[in-house]
Predict the structure.
Amino acid sequence: MHTVWKGSISFGLVNIPIKLHTATEDKDIKLRQLHKDCHTPISYHKVCPGCDEEVKPEDIVKAYEYVKGKFVILDAEDLEKLKKENEEKSVEIIDFVKLEEIDPIYFEKSYFMAPDNGGGKAYSLLRKALVESGKIGIAKIIIRSKEQLAVVRVYQETLLMETIHFPDEVRNVQEVPNIPTELVVVQKELDTALMLVEQLTTTFEPEKYHDEYRTALMELIEEKKAGAKTVTATEKQPAAASNVTDLMSALQASLDKTKKKKPTTRKKAAVKDAPKTTTRTRKNA
C-alpha cells in the first residue's frame, strides 16, 4: 500500500511515528476523448485568453482575486517560506470527543495510519485507549501545504484518520433555496411512510451495495473488446512532422521571396509605359 505521508502523531507527551495510506480509492471508469476522424486522444493546453497564446508552466504565477478583476500576486518564494514554516510532519491530537457529536457533513477523506519503525507499542496504546474510552481524537495536520482538521479513530484493528472540514467550509444551511416551511402532515400518510421505513429497515452491510452503472459499463467495454469493436489512435510521427514543418517553411519563404520581386517587376513596367503616356499627353496638348 502506497505511503502518502510520513510523520508522527502525538497526544500529550506521547509521540508515535506513523505512515499514512489512502483508505479509499476512486473506482470511476475514466473515459478518454478522441478525435472522431482519426481516433487520436485530445490534449489540453493552457492558453491565455488575453494574448491568445499557449502558456508554459514557468510563465504562470499564483494570485488571489480580492475583487473582480483585481489580484494580489503571490511570489513562489513567499509561498515556499510559508510552506516550510508550517510543514512540521506531525498530527497533534488536541481534544477527545464522541464520534456521534460530529455530523457526517464534516467528513472528507480517510487514511489508514500504520506505525513506523519503533512506533508499534505507542500505536497499540493509543488504539486501546480509544477503544476503552469510546472516544475519538480531534487533531490538526498539514497535508500538501494545507492545514487540515481531522479525527483519529479505530477502524477494525487499525487507527484511521479522517480529514474533516473546518466549520467555515460548511455552507450555511439557511442559504439553501426553496426549503418548505412546516406543513400539516396527514396522519394516515405519516403512518404509511413509517410502515415503509420499518419494512426497509435492516442492518448496514456495506458488501451488499454495488455500483451497478460501473459494472454495466465495464461489461459493455469487455463486450466491445471481444467483438473487436476497438480503434487505434493515429500516432503522430515526430520525424514526419518535422519534415512537413520544414517543407512549409520553405514554401512560405519561397512565396515571400516571390512577393518581394513582384513590385519590382511592376515598377519596371510602369517606367516603360511612362514615355508613351508623356508623348500622348504632349500630342494632345
Summary: The chain is about 35% helix and 25% strand. The helical segments are 76-85, 120-133, 187-200, 212-226, 238-284.
